[in-house]
């Protein structure tokens, strides 16, 4: 995941510990979930939480091709164009800035609209956006690269804005449905990044490395997945089971949380916000602003040109992230929050600069110390595993610290704070690109 970048409004609890977080059974019998449509919808909803941003980021080879110098048939990583050089860091800014605005929207305005409406509308907008970029794969943009670059950034804005609203709406469903449905959604989140990575690798292999055709089919997969989830959201929300669970906790549509309520909830989750702030800073100056520029030690080989970026930068990152979340679920660290914060800071200070010293191109100032592919892979693996551990730790922390009635407010406030922090820190990635 990249990207997770990427974007950090998440409910990252991968496995539920019933001894620590027991769920009280409903006093009213729940209608049957016919054909398990609820499970299917929650799984697809989880897959699509971050899938649009994952697909965009993982198609790094495609963007590098689109923004190359058309006068040269072979793109030289050590002499990239400005659009190639700043694409990843610019997309981070376009990705994070709108989420701050819509994070405020989630607190101030979103409560006025039905949860299901928010989810369905945002899925519809994402589907249309993806379809447009799928078509753009077949359009020659060499004569208007600047305009296309701006269009891609606008696409990031649409996707990140709708993702922000969709995520908070989805989280509002968690407390209204049996926990098995939340698990199903979180499993969908966990597999979405790896599935996206594997799909693009298979597309590259199927088309023998042809960037345009492989990306076209890749985006078609994404469009079909979003369209399927949109249709499921419309159908599932009309079932008796879904309506029963949806109204098991009345949705407040008349007033936003008071200042006192917000401050009280903030006080309970402030430690996790500080920990995630360290995480966000580390991400903003590594993945994908720098990692998208890392190239293989080999030159002009199939591995270097077609497979290195999707395998070593995106698949490795997403696999390691999932592994870190699993380790956090099975082997939780029983230490104080302050000690965990200290370890997080040390880990960030040590590992982040090592990524800068890998073979990210172009560069003029810093030397390449870790130029071998395996060295980059090992450093990035350790960084991503610890990222996953931190994310899962923080998500498990929130439901322990707030009452069930304050869960919606806590997740919304947490998301807003993360949006604020990532918006502030995302331009640092562009600065680090120049430092290299």
Automatic annotation (TrEMBL):
InterPro entries reported in the protein's UniProt record: Eqnu_transpt, MFS_trans_sf
Family: Belongs to the SLC29A/ENT transporter (TC 2.A.57) family.
Membrane topology summary: Multi-pass membrane protein
Pfam families the UniProt entry points to: Nucleoside_tran
Localisation per UniProt entry: Membrane
A GO molecular-function annotation: nucleoside transmembrane transporter activity
Bilayer-spanning residue ranges: 37-59, 93-114, 121-141, 147-169, 181-210, 216-236, 272-295, 307-327, 339-356, 376-398, 410-433
Keywords for the protein's UniProt record, in alphabetical order: Membrane, Transmembrane, Transmembrane helix, Transport
Main location: membrane
Keyword Transit peptide belongs to the record: no
Protein name: Equilibrative nucleoside transporter 3
GO CC, alphabetical: plasma membrane
